[in-house]
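Same chain as my last thread, 103 residues:
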Amino acid sequence: GTQLSPGTPASPWSPPTAGSPTAYRLQTVQIVLKPKSSEELLDEATTNLRCVEWRHLSYELMSSSGGGPETYQLSRALAKGENIDFFMSHSWHDDADAKWKAL
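reply #2:
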């Protein structure tokens, strides 16, 4: 697997290799866990928090389970003092039409 340095986004996707039949292949990522205090965990979560702006949401995004670097690129880090307006979670298995109409 691949060991990530601190601050590196963990993406299970990597670019295709020569002769690869798919656009992206799943990559094993090794994460070293060590005990952390609740304060350290909160600080890490706050530092790594990202958002996706409404203008980047699309029917295709909500109906596909295929993620990768291009999907990650739709997100951005929060600016200092910025808050997220809404948190949305969804299942890839839910009806895409119903989800999109609800939005």
